[in-house]
Amino acid sequence: MTSPHVTEHLEGHLLGALDSADAARVASHLDACMDCAALLADAREVLAVLPASLEPMEPRASLKSQIMTAAMQAQRDENGPAPLPLPQSTQGRQRPPPWLAIAAGVFAAAAAAAVVWALVLQARLDDRDKQLADARLAAGAFANSSETLRMESEFSGNAVEAAIAMPSEGTIITVVVTGLPGLQSGDGYRLWLFADGQPQTGVPLTPDGQGNVVAQLDVDLAQFDAMELDAQPLEATAPGGELVIGGPLR
Amino acid sequence: MNVGGLINVDVQILETNEDLLVRMRSHELDALEALYDRYKSFAFALAYKIVGGRETAEEVVQDAFMSVWKQAQTYEPGVGRVRPWLLSIVRNRAIDSLRRVRGKQTASLDEAWMVPSDDDIFRDVYGGLQRDQILKALDALPNEQRQAIEMAYFQGRSFTEMAEDTNTPAGTWKSRVRLAVGKLRQLLDEEAVS
After folding, report:
1. Contact between chains at A42 and B28 (C-beta distance less than 8 A)
2. What global pTM score does this model have?
3. Where are the domains positioned within chain A?
4. Does the structure show a pLDDT above 90 at B155?
5. Which among A28, A57, B77, B158 would be 20 to 30 A from B54, CA to CA?
6. Taking Cα atoms as reference points, which of A209, A246, A222, A230 lies closest to residue A134?
């Protein structure tokens, strides 16, 4: 020990309320005194509860996309023009979303407030009018969603991905499916919703030329427990076609 | 879920905050997204309380999450709890912003808070308390101690500024803050076991 203890200054130090001379003295002392450092940690525990005394407040939905965009930019600045490193999938946790690499590829053209799914669709679709309309639709839905669900599968050699945005208000869900291969004439895709193992409704989905589709459905998803997208003749009225993607909804 | 070996359904699995930091260290953006979703409303509420405007508060929150993203690259598991660390960054950024507006030439708070080390541990022993329990503890503080916490923590005022604003000696405010923290610990302990 080379200096007097600074216990009377610890709370002020944590709060940044000391004058510069006291602050410097406390910092210097803490480097050498484990007792005072332990007391500092105790005081920090108490102060850490104060944010939880506030009523939570929601920022604008677009703030999230701004932060993600800024993080991508920071990554690009660090890595140069090379693609972002994509981590390997690990069993037991969510895989990194596939939009990551695509969003990085189109980053330069992306507006700061663009939403992630807008970037995905913007990169993937050739039909620009439809692309932008779908992208805006999906962007708004995912930005305002209360919960999202993602699924992945392989179908006819294609990596198929689906994302569902549950609304924070109302019952309109938004479904985005990408990577759908073209089907033979007379066949189509149909989205089925199940309750207790029984199909309750089937909605035809028509992908664009790039195999992507954005659809909005007005349904109370709480009534359903599973979803399947299958491929079968257009006139089919029940599930049973070739399974494309699907899974539980909760 | 696998059906006939064809379908692979990937559902959200709740990861710990520390898991998310570890994945951010590997540049996994969805980990940052998950942490943001988890704490955006708390971070924004804190920033708004301090700076008093939505636009500036959002700038603070963005700045704070970007700091987390960058500092996560050097994060070591076990150093400390992420939630109090994140919120301390939000507070410090908000107060730095406030002080810039006030024109105060004060050092950034970042150095004291933002680089966790073995001696700078962010524990979270009261993380399980509900808001009403914390409010109850704060309400039980003597008025002058509660005011001291409000001015020092949420308004980012130095003891010298508090003295100038209230004609009460800086040493008195320092004592009140110190007493408030001690009393608050006692009250929170009581709430934690109740």
Report:
1. no
2. 0.58
3. 7-53, 62-81+95-248
4. yes
5. B158
6. A209
User: Residue A118: in which H helix or E strand, if any?
Assistant: helix A116-124
Contacts of A158 in chain B (CB under 8 A): none
Q: What single-letter amino acid sits at B148?
A: A
Q: Which residue of B has its CA nearest to A228?
A: B7
Report all structural domains of chain B as residue ranges with CATH numbers, in order of start.
12-124 (1.10.1740.10), 128-194 (1.10.10.10)
Tell me if residue B129 falls in helix, strand or coil: coil
Query: Is-contact B97 B110, C-beta < 8 A?
Result: no
Residue B137 corresponds to which amino acid?
A
A153 within 8 A of A164, measured Cβ to Cβ: no
Ordered DSSP codes for A140-162: HHHHTEEEEEEEEEEETTEEEEE
Yes or no: say if B76 and B118 are a contact pair by the CB < 8 Å rule.
no
Window 120-179 of B: residues touching A by CB (8 A cutoff) are 121-127, 129, 131, 134-135, 138, 149, 152-154, 156-160, 162, 173-174, 177-178
CB contact under 8 A, B28 and A44: no
**Angstrom distance (rounded) from CA A223 to CA A193:** 9
Residues in chain A closer than 8 A to B23 (CB atoms): 87, 93
Chain A, 88 to 117: residues with Cβ < 8 Å from chain B are: 92-97, 100
Of B111, B99, B103, residue with least CA distance to B56: B99
Mean pLDDT by 10 residues, chain A (250 residues): 78 91 88 88 89 93 91 76 33 36 34 41 45 62 76 88 81 83 86 83 80 79 85 83 86
Q: Which helix (H) or strand (E) holds A244?
A: strand A242-248
Tokens of A154: 């392989």
Q: Which residue has the higher pLDDT, A179 or B149?
A: B149
| Separation CA A82–CA A80 (nearest Å) | 6
Alpha-carbon gap, residue A99 to B27, rounded angstroms? 14
Cα A50 to chain center, whole Å? Answer: 29
Q: Read off the amino acid at residue B154.
A: F
Grouping H, G, I as helix, E, B as strand and the rest as coil, residue A176 is strand
C-alpha B33/C-alpha A70 separation (Å) is: 12
For residues A64 and B173, what is the distance between their CA atoms, to the nearest angstrom? 39
Instruction: Using a CB–CB cutoff of 8 Å, tell me whether A185 touches chain B.
Output: no
- Cβ of A54 within 8 Å of Cβ of B49? The answer is yes
- Say yes or no for a CB contact (<8 Å) between A92 and B13: yes
Distance, CA of A171 to chain centre: 20
